[in-house]
Specification:
This protein has about 80 residues and is mostly helical. The chain has four helices and no strands. The radius of gyration is 17 Å and the shape is flat. The termini are far apart.
Length: about 80
């Protein structure tokens, strides 16, 4: 049955390619500019399904973010 409102199905979205596999860029905990791209405005780590990273690179990225937080290169949470 076709509805008057249209829609009805999900839109096809292309699967995101892992940025680190594609560019062969290393993940370094000292590269704060790169790590900030994978944090929300509240300071949480962006999940893999949203960022499009592969599992090994997502794990490496998470470890790098946690290391940068430990030595105070990144904040644990944004101030209000």
């Amino acid at each position: 049955m076709d509805r008057a409102g249209g829609g009805g199905g999900r839109l096809f979205q292309r699967r995101r390619v892992c940025r680190f596999c594609y560019d062969k860029t290393p993940i370094d905990f000292k590269d704060v500019g790169l790590l900030k791209n994978f944090l929300t405005e509240r300071g949480r780590i962006v999940p893999r399904r949203i960022s499009g990273n592969c599992m090994p690179h997502q794990r490496e990225l998470t470890t790098a973010i946690k290391r940068a937080r430990t030595i105070a290169l990144l904040a644990f949470a944004e101030e209000r």
